[in-house]
Amino acid sequence: MSDDLQPASSRPFVTTPAHVPALDIVILAAGESTRMRSQTPKVLHMLAGRPLIDYSLRLAEALSPSRPVVVVGRNADALMAQVGARARYVHQEQRLGTGHALLQARPALQGASQTVLVFYADMPLITQESMQALLALHHQNQAGGGVLTMLTFTSDSPRGFGRIVRSAAGDVLAIVEEAACTPEQLGITELNPGLYCYDADWLWRSLDEITLSPKGEYYLTDLVAIAVGQGRPVWAHHVDDASEMMGINTRVHLAEAEATLRERINRRWMEAGVTMIDPAATYIDDTVEIGPDTLLLPGVHLHGQSRIGAGCRIGPDTSVVDTIIGRGCRVQRAVLENSELEDHVDVGPFAHLRSGAYLATGVHMGNFGEVKNSRLGPGVKMGHFSYVGDAAIGQDVNISAGVITCNFDGSRKNQTIIGDHAFIGSDTMLVAPVTVGAGARTGAGSVVTRDV
Ligand code: UD1
Ligand code: CA
Is 53 helix (H, G, I), strand (E, B) or coil? Predict the structure, then answer.
């Protein structure tokens, strides 16, 4: 997919207002992520319903109309299959460090833009506000001859992070990687999260000046000391909320990030009018939407492209996956997948809606029911122990206990059609294909093999 890479000069910048210098964004994602101990590349692990890389891409898309460049390594195929045309790709064949990774983007980007923003792909919690603060500070810094602006944060547990070394006057002098720190530098609590804004011309010229570290890597972080050595001021915006700066290296970090994100997502919905009895036990993907005055009880999992209307009561212990729920619905201890509920539908307890279930306004579906690939018309009552598959059911039909659509004859799925106001007696077997006319009744225990 590297043919996806267009020459820099042919890329349109028409959506960038004339007064804003064009911005290119590079996301470094070529690491081996061995500490995840996974067959799946780290940045494709899921976090609140989106792959990690999606968080970086969405940030990039919000900040610049120019498609981000993602540096990929051995994970290239899986990553490109997931991300597709949202990014341009460059390959880092050998893992020679973050400076070397960025160097791979030079042929594609040199001369293209005035500013280059670089960050690592394993930081899903960083907010757009912090990025915007970085860009704003960079433009101020540039006015005074600055070529490099970065983010920093402070933490008492600095393990693994590069330390920010400042002069007595408080100016940034260097980033020192932990392995290279003096005992005194190890005590520094201002840290490098790994987000940098560069003057593009300076960046592409200066990358060659990075020398090999004793560990055999080219450190991108060396550019700070290189700029300072040239008398160029390096400015830093300090992010006060350290939780934004978390980098995911292990599955423990992944779970911690999930908890932080869950808190953020739940807070957003509570502020928008959703009630949660126990936010810590309410699991909402970043992709889901919920109307106001909806009540979520503990053990609710809302996933994928689900949309919940206003004034609903969902849970406890309910999973909703890629399902649309209208207004004023009640869903108790149920599993809903790829389904749709109109308004004032009542489901559960212990109900299962499978792919293609459509419940019109006012449907009541009680305990131990399963509906698949079927439309239940307005006001249908389906109280207890029934299976409805591949059926079209009219308005106000009563489906008594234990009704089964026998939709599978061993090789094909067949349709059941039930007209408006029909009454299907308890324990009726509807052997499809079969049609029950409007207003018809079937007796308890009947096996219906021909149209009624
Ligand atoms: C890096 C920083 C460190 C910072 C920390 C924040 C350097 C030298 N150090 O260290 O100052 O505090 O991040 O998390 O930059 N990558 C490549 N190709 C490579 C190496 C890395 O694409 O050859 C990518 C990785 O996929 C990852 C990112 O760069 O997304 C950072 O690499 P990582 O090895 O995690 O750097 P750290 O040791 O954490
Ligand atoms: Ca890292």
Answer: helix
Dist. CA 199 → ligand 1 center (Å)? 21
Contact status, residue 300 vs residue 280, Cβ threshold 8 Å: no
122: Cβ below 6 Å to ligand 1? yes
Between CA 161 and CA 250 the distance in angstroms is 15
State pLDDT tens for residues 425-435: 999 999 999 99
Q: What residues are annotated to the active site?
A: 384
Over residues 41-50, the mean pLDDT reads 95
Beta strands in 200-276 (DSSP E): 234-238, 275-276
Q: Closest Cα to residue 415, out of 436, 397, 401?
A: 436
Amino acid at 89: Y
Please list, in sequence order, all residues whose beta carbon lies within 8 angstroms of the beta carbon of residue 49, skipping any fewer than 6 positions away: 285, 286, 287, 288, 303, 304
Report the DSSP beta bridge partners of residue 424.
399, 442
8 Å CB contact between 452 and 442 = yes
Rounded distance between C-alpha atoms, residue 64 and residue 421, angstroms? 57
Alpha helices (H) in 64-214, listed in sequence order: 76-83, 98-103, 106-109, 128-143, 183-186, 200-206
